[in-house]
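Hey, can you fold this?
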Amino acid sequence: MPNAAERDDVEQQLTTVAEALSLPSSTAQITRVRLNQLGSEPEIEDSSLSIVGATTLSLSAREDGLPITVSDVAEAWSETLEGTSIDPGAMTALFDDIAANLDIDGVPPEPRALIERFGTELDLPDGIVVVAKRILEDAFEADPQTIAGSTSPAGTAGAVLYLAAAVNDVDGADEDALGDVTDTSQVTVRNRYKELRDLLGEQHLETTQRYQLDPDTGAPMATSSAPDTESAPVETADDETSGEDPEATDKASADAPGEGEPETANADDESTPTAETAEVVTALFPDELPTTDRVAEELAADPEAIAADLETLVADGTVERKRAGSTDVWLPGDRDALGPDLTEDAVQREVDAIADELDLDASVRLFARGLVSDVVEAVDVEHAGELGGAALLAACRVNDVDVEASEIAATGEFAARALYDWLETLDSAVDIEIPTAGAETYVDRLADVLDLDESVREESVRAIEQYDPRPDDPSYTPPELAAGATVFAATVRGTGVELEQLAEASGADPAFISEATDSVLVSLCLDLVREDLDYEETGWTGDLLESELSPEFGDSETGAAIALAKAYAAGRESQPVDEATIDALVGR
């Protein structure tokens, strides 16, 4: 197992290599998280930690669709080592083992290989494949994060093939065909090529020699270096429409009234936008998550206006609304469920939104996203927020980050107690042990926050230890049970505690605290009367008769249990039973 010094060395090497290769910070960060996850795996522990680090970085770069080869990483990493170097072959030999240990579904293909494969499947000229690779490399040089930010390296490969073919007027690489061979969608390819076109500049793509095919031979034009990215147009306020589709612009010009002509209303003006909105929802689904913002982005329209259109479509049955955590998802009317991939996308959005709200660092966020993929297949999208919150809570606990369930719940539209159910689901589905905080831990926190007497803290812990719920009792979260036991202990000890204070300090709902209090009281009182608890060794029995616990406390069942316990204690103490207790016992 590597020691701390070796791990620190690899961390520094990773940082140096990422900077040398101009890799996005997100790629380096997920590699760090993965190296921590690998730990001491038997399949890889005999390998050099530097080779493991280089191989993991290469896998992460491939997953992000970055045009970085194994040799690129090996050469850059070797520069950080003294007296030795990394053989690219040693890295490729480790690919399968590391991918398996990281639960990566197969070794991702190298991005250039994807371009070659898709070009072959579409029977595109070899020259177009070469130009597509150049476009990918230049886009990476211009802005690595734009490449890494794609959710689909295959979509990026399709996009650069589309651009290469479009620049050279070559048929066979339309959106539909590329969507099919890349196993994404025409929408994904379209969005990606527009993003890359805007990054490099449309004029730059059309006029730069390295993107052209020789008209006589069909071979790529010779090139000695990548284009100067500074020559790409800089977007300004005046250029906001420069990226418009020329065909759409020509159509708009043709349809616009001539100078001096009055504008006339089109009978379809009101219905057309709504129909276009429905078409986009249908086009996006099931390859992408049709959220309001995503549909608005596709139509280059105001999200509020699109939301109104979508509501209209829901009313007439064309579209169905699904709630995905804090986000509305719009499905075509004949579909009422999302597949696992889109549900995972919805949960990941919730993870990111909550992490942003709580300002959690990237390692926690990435850890949470990794947990989600293990359980999402059987999850309904309506629970996206709860699962996302639970995954973050688990990630915080594993990484020793002090965040409570109540803090996570406060950022979303779900109750804190729901997170504990999902924590159990995660714990049973993943191989990682998720630390748990028991009710006793929360008692200590409540005692500190509310400055409770030590005797109340001790009695609360003892009550939790003695608590024996009946089979039909509901289960309570650790904060709820801790707060309920504290109410019991404070009351029997004659110390007042406000329910609202307990709720605020524990993050538990007051109603569930009251229910937990009743459950604890019934359990302890009946166990005392049944003599399952030793009267002499049960500290609270001496205070019971003088305490504010009475038959009027809690619900009717709780009151009856208290009455029984008081009558029993009175007999043990040779004291008379008070009238209220007698009334409760005889049903008056």
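Oh, and this one too while you're at it.
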Amino acid sequence: MRMTRRLIPARISPRVTLSPDHFEMRTAHPLMIAITVMLISCASAPSSEDRRRLAEGTRWELVRWGDRTVPHGDNGEPVILEFKDGRASGHTGCNRYHTRVTFGPGERQVTVSPGMTTRLACEPRRMEFEASFIRPFEASTGYRVEGERLLFESGGAPPLEFYRRPLERYRER
């Protein structure tokens, strides 16, 4: 006895018809489209809380700011910021710096409060850079985390671009 398989057309939903020779999708259900778009958008964009945690988990070295030359301190220490518990602290090329930073409430929004620095005397070029760096940093209204980079943005000014640096590198000093 010989057995043969025969495919029988099946009706899966009022919108999709399947048969061995024919596949047709007349219209997509609007609810399915909405759910698909929502799932894709949720999966592709980390939340503000995730970005905040990412920014807080490391030290960030200023590597680029428009066409300006980014100096290093007298002892070779770069411009560094570290974020923890709503605060930013670090070295501005001459002095130590501390301020409050709030990530949010909106996505990619940031508020940087007026901060304070130590008052060491450095060469004039470094002090000018420090003052010109602090103003746009404190004026930042937006930020982005792109892989190993953290960018602070304020209006039409060039972004302050920081690069992630391992904490171990600085703890050994």
